[in-house]
Amino acid sequence: MDIDLIRKYNVAGPRYTSYPTVPAWEPATYSPEKWRLAVTQCHGPVSLYLHLPYCESLCTFCGCHKRITRNHQVETPYIDALLNEWTMYRSLLPDAPALSDLHLGGGTPSFFSPENLNRLMEGLLRHTSRSPGSEFSFEGHPGNTTAEHLHTLYDHGFRRVSFGVQDYDERVQKAIHRIQPFEQVRAVTEAARAAGYTSVSHDLVFGLPFQQRGGVLDTMRKTISLRPDRIAFYSYAHVPWIKGNGQRGFRDEDIPTGEAKRELYEAGRELLEAAGYREVGMDHFALPGDPLFRAMEEGTLHRNFMGYTTAPSPTLIGLGASAISDSWTAYSQNEKEVEAYLAAVGQGELPVLKGHFLSDEDLRFRRRILDLMCRFGTELEDEESLAKLRPLEEDGLVVCDDRTVRVTDRGRPFVRNVCMAIDRRLADTGQKLYSATI
Ligand SMILES: C[S@@+](CC[C@H](N)C(=O)[O-])C[C@H]1O[C@@H](n2cnc3c(N)ncnc32)[C@H](O)[C@@H]1O
Ligand code: SF4
Q1: Same domain, 397 and 321
Q2: Number of domains in the chain
Q3: Does some domain include residue 18?
Q4: Whether the Cβ atoms of residue 332 and residue 310 lie closer than 8 Å to each other
Q5: Does residue 3 fall inside a structural domain?
Q6: Ligand 1 centroid vs 93 CA: distance in angstroms?
Q7: Which of 296, 325, 357 is the last residue of a domain?
Q8: Are residues 289 and 319 in the same domain?
């Protein structure tokens, strides 16, 4: 491990699920009218994301947009709003939409009853076709995903499910307020396979409070024993200034940072690679037969607001509170609060809050950042960017010639820093808005 490099490069920085990143969006470029017009110009397959924000219990590490409640009366009006919002988008899209992929994320999609998810999918798919090779997936909480959830969504074409696991160490589980025994994860993983799901993914997180090497190794061994097709091994994003009290269930001193944090990742990675998993992009692992791995090998891996994906559809429509849409030349984010979202849809309006229209320069840099995040290299002919990369080249993180930049093996853990060096919009945002890069 390059301790000196970790000390030098462990700064606050974006995860680059978009370029420009959300805090760098320029409000003056955007208006709801312009966004509607941009949607009318989106041709071809559509990638659809539905945000289902509810969870029954708060995990104190969580950085997602969620609403904690045990009141399941909230389900019906929310599903009505999603269906109405989709109807509005369908009327704007120039072609009858064919889905390249559909993802239910959250919050917790499995908070919703199978009956309500069935109604949602019937309504969504009634006027919508699927393009060849399309993939439907959802995020399930191991604590409330039932066989009925799995079968209901399977019947609508879902074949991929990801389960939030995080960590099996009891002390960590207590600190993050998420008690979740291995047996529960084993049972739901086996149930998904028995129901016919062909790709099961587990989400793990490194850098959580009280996490230690031994515990991470134990979590990894348990995970490997269930042989998930994919594993997301996320860097804990500690952003308490955004999420308020939610993340304050532990003290800052309890969180491993810098080299201690990176060591947790390396420990997990070694075990995964020894077990036949391959690293994909920045924080994912997959078995060699998995489409995510194949996409990396074939150079078609893509990254969007949901992370790494195999479906590089230029149009992403995000439905639901806080969801982000992307027409390739523009981004648009929905109202973040559920009440504001429901009120806007109730009035027959697109529930948009803010967005950004990309300039020609943004579009060029978007391509470069995507290349770096997905392929660890890009074409780059402008002097200014190359000059900014020189210090990273001196540290052995990248190799540049006058047309290209390639991230070295040594530089891979610092790929976010490489992107930051060429990011033309970062200076506008103030880095305090981001979590640490390591
Ligand atoms: C929407 S949740 C998954 C579904 C379900 N809500 C659950 O928790 O099982 C998405 C995933 O994001 C990851 N995540 C949430 N907050 C995070 C944070 N602050 N840093 C890194 N990863 C985080 C977790 O691994 C979590 O499983
Ligand atoms: S980790 Fe999942 S269940 Fe926990 S609060 Fe976040 S979205 Fe909800």
Answers
A1: no
A2: 2
A3: no
A4: no
A5: no
A6: 31
A7: 357
A8: yes
pLDDT at 311: 74
Q: Is the dihedral of CA 202, 433, 54, 215 positive or negative?
A: positive
| 8 Å CB contact between 204 and 172 | no
Confirm or reject: Cβ of 291 under 6 Å from ligand 2: no
Asked whether 62 lines ligand 2 (CB < 6 A), one says yes
* Mean pLDDT, the chain, whole residue set: 93
Both 320 and 366 in one domain: the answer is: no
Residue 6 lies in a domain: no
Domain boundary among 357, 379, 411: 357
Domain CATH code at residue 108: 3.80.30.20
Task: Point out the least confidently predicted range of 62-76, 117-131, 220-234, 401-415.
Answer: 401-415
Q: Which of 62, 161, 200, 230 to mutate to test the pocket of ligand 1 (most atoms within 8 A of CB)?
A: 62
As a whole number of angstroms, the distance between CA 55 and CA 135 comes to 25
Domain that holds residue 410: 360-433
Q: Is the CB of 141 under 6 A from ligand 2?
A: yes
State whether the beta carbon of 108 lies less than 6 angstroms from ligand 2: yes
Answer yes or no: do 53 and 149 share one domain.
Answer: yes
Residue 263 Cβ inside 6 Å of ligand 1? The answer reads no
**Claim to verify: residue 292 and residue 368 sit in the same structural domain:** no
In a domain, 4, yes or no: no
**What confidence category does residue 79 fall into, taking pLDDT thresholds of 50, 70 and 90?**
very high
| Spatial distance between the Cα atoms of 225 and 214, rounded to a whole number of angstroms | 17
- 55 annotated to bind ligand: yes
Ligand 1 atom nearest to CA at 239: 19
- List phi, psi (to 5°) of 243: -95, 5
Question: CA 288, CA 269: separation in Å to the nearest integer?
Answer: 15
pLDDT per position as a tens digit, 347-365:
999 999 999 999 999 999 9
Regarding the beta carbon of 108 and ligand 1, being less than 6 Å apart is answered yes
β-strand 54-55 against 278-280: which pairing, if any?
unpaired
Pairing of the two strands 67-68 and 404-407: unpaired
Cα–Cα distance for residue pair 341/400, rounded to 1 Å:
46
Minimum mean pLDDT range among 69-73, 184-188, 300-304, 310-314: 310-314
Asked whether 180 lines ligand 2 (CB < 6 A), one says no
Pocket test for ligand 2, best of 62, 177, 178, 245 (most atoms within 8 A of CB): 62
Atom of ligand 1 at shortest range from CA of 66: 1
Q: How far apart are the C-alpha atoms of 60 and 250, rounded to whole Å?
A: 8
CATH code, domain with 386 = 1.10.10.920
pLDDT score for 429 = 64
Residue 203 is assigned to a ligand binding site: yes
Based on the domain organization, do 353 and 367 belong to the same domain?
no
The residue to which tokens 């990176």 are assigned = 262
Query: How remote is the CA of residue 309 from the centroid of ligand 1, in Å?
Result: 17
Lowest model confidence (mean pLDDT) among 43-52, 146-155, 181-190, 421-430: 421-430
Protein residue whose Cα sits closest to atom 1 of ligand 2? 62
Q: Are residues 338 and 400 in the same domain?
A: no
366 marked among binding-site residues = no
- Do residues 321 and 367 share a domain? no
